[in-house]
Amino acid sequence: MVVGRDKCGEQRLVSLPLSRIRVIMKSSPEVSSINQEALVLTAKATELFVQYLATYSYRHGSGKEKKALTYHDLSNTAEESETFQFLADILPKKILASKYLKMLKEQKQEEEEEEENSNDDESDEAES
Questions:
Q1: Burial letters 60-98, b for 16+ CB under 10 A, else e
Q2: Closest CA to 90 of 77, 103, 100
Q3: Can you tell me the distance from the alpha carbon of 121 to that of 128, in angstroms, rounded to the nearest whole number?
Q4: Is pLDDT above 70 for 89?
Q5: Each residue's pLDDT tens digit, 50-81
Q6: Confidence band of 38 (pLDDT split at 50, 70, 90)
């Protein structure tokens, strides 16, 4: 295991800043106090998770050819892997703004057509 060093040169078990993790944990209304051991374990678990996500994305992505991990690799992993599916909203696939606007326009047209069809069905029922 790689052990980092803090500002005073002492060994650290985690690389992530514990103060930031504490702030994130305290942002939850259910959390009143945080034990130092729980904080360190959460930091270590987070590091291991990020490492696993990056390794998995690198191995299963196109970055291997370029010897680089790309955002595209991460978003593909979130979308295609059942294990990482919960990250799909956080790591969405990048699309061009023009393509997104076109999708919105098509969606709006579909909704309008559905609304017209439901109004037609209601008027047909009223005539019967």
A1: ebebeeeeebeeebbbbbbeeeeebeebeeebeeeeeee
A2: 77
A3: 11
A4: yes
A5: 999 999 999 888 766 778 888 889 999 999 99
A6: very high
Tell the residue number behind the tokens 């500002």, with chain if given.
7
DSSP state of 92: P
CB 77 within 8 A of CB 49: no
CA–CA dist 77, 92 (Å, integer): 10
- Spatial separation of the C-alpha atoms in residues 58 and 74, rounded to whole Å: 8
- Indicate the fold that domain 4-94 takes in CATH: Histone, subunit A (1.10.20)
Quick check: 28 and 38 in contact, CB under 8 A?
no
Do 78 and 91 contact (CB within 8 A), yes or no?
yes
Q: Which residues pair with 50 in a beta bridge?
A: none
Rounded distance between C-alpha atoms, residue 16 and residue 44, angstroms: 8
Q: What angle do CA 26, 32, 35 make, to 5 degrees?
A: 80
* Mean pLDDT (whole number) for 87-109: 88
